[in-house]
């Protein structure tokens, strides 16, 4: 596989996904809401305009790029993006025949809501509910999906300690770039198909004493 489309490519995580994927040999199409004012695409990456709230716009990007893998790093601002936007991307992938889809949501979605703090739920409970609806829609479709739920996203220098867990109980933070590195690695990991994974920096990890670690294919034990 070599063709990748990144939705949310001008965002905090998406721009790092584009850069790291291009560096890893992918031909990247950066899907951004507006071409004007968007961050420059990395070397060898194209940019296409896509409003994720417009299914036709999303479908046009997939038809043009013909990706092997789609990564959705959309979110923030309009709560409809967290729900309808992800659903539109997933539906368009089905129509276009794109099988592999990786979607970023958040800790506090789905079953992990049980372990979320009251403070988090009070602050972004509606956002988490919207992302959960999107997850439910995605996982019911005939796609080779992976859902990644990061902890608190922070900007700044990565430390390479980002890790994935098959565990709803974990808490912590992760830099946007470290999260992006995990997403790019998952794009070539078929073992992660059909999995919901938590993403946290191991240095900030809290929760259970026995978290279930997921190792991306090829990662050293």
From TrEMBL:
InterPro entries named in the record: NAD(P)-bd_dom, NAD(P)-bd_dom_sf
Pfam families: NAD_binding_10 (PF13460)
Residues in NAD(P)-binding domain copies: 8-189
Superkingdom of origin organism: Bacteria
Protein name: Putative NADH-flavin reductase
UniProt source species: Blastochloris viridis
């Amino acid at each position: 596989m070599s063709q990748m489309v990144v939705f949310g490519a001008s965002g905090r995580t998406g721009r790092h996904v584009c850069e790291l994927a291009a560096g890893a040999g992918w031909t990247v199409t950066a899907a951004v809401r507006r071409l004007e004012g968007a961050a420059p695409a990395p070397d060898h990456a194209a940019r296409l305009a896509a409003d994720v709230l417009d299914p036709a716009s999303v479908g046009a990007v997939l038809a043009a790029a013909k990706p092997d893998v789609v990564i959705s790093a959309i979110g923030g601002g309009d709560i409809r993006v967290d729900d309808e936007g992800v659903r539109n991307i997933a539906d368009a992938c089905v129509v276009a025949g794109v099988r592999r889809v990786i979607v970023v949501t958040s800790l506090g979605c789905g079953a992990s809501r049980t372990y979320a703090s009251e403070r988090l739920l009070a602050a972004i409970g509606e956002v988490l509910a919207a992302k959960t609806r999107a997850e439910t829609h995605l996982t019911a479709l005939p796609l080779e999906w992976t859902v990644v739920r990061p902890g608190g996203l922070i900007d700044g220098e990565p430390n390479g300690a980002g890790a994935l867990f098959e565990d709803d109980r974990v808490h912590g933070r992760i830099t946007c770039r470290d999260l992006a590195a995990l997403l790019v690695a998952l794009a070539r990991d078929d073992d992660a198909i059909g999995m919901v994974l938590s993403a946290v920096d191991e240095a900030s990890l809290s929760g259970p004493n026995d978290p279930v670690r997921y190792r991306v294919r090829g990662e050293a034990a």
